[in-house]
Amino acid sequence: MTEPRIRRAVVADAEELARAYRSAYRENRRLGFPASAGTVTGRDVAEWVRECRVYVAETEGEVVGGVRLEAGDSNRVKLSRLGVREERKGEGVGGRLLDRAEEAVRDCGYAAVWLTTPEDHPYLPELYRRRGYEKTGEYPLENRSYDEIVMEKRFR
To answer: What does the alpha-carbon distance between residue 142 and residue 154 come to, in Å, rounded to a whole number?
Structure first.
């Protein structure tokens, strides 16, 4: 298994990253947590790359996952769209993407990073807790049959 290279995404990655997201989010749909990332298009991802900070994990020339950081207020950044191709899950790619995203948040001087995740998901809330994220609130979803929680990791 080749160690993934994590780099800043460019617009030319959009189609391949959209395919990676559609693959990555199939599992959540099967678990009853459908997300819009499961149907994302290359055009959507290209817009994210232009407007946000997006990182990709690349292995042997193939984009196998990504993560998005959205600037919010002056103290914290939202982490979203963390996803790894279904066939590459369990190889540490997601952890490497999280490491890079958190490093970028710290390097830019933000005090915290936050995210939302389904509270009843079988492993995501615990994965984030193990990485130092704490539940800070509820995040109701109007267009879903489930709600999410807000989790935050402070750096200072």
So the answer is: 28
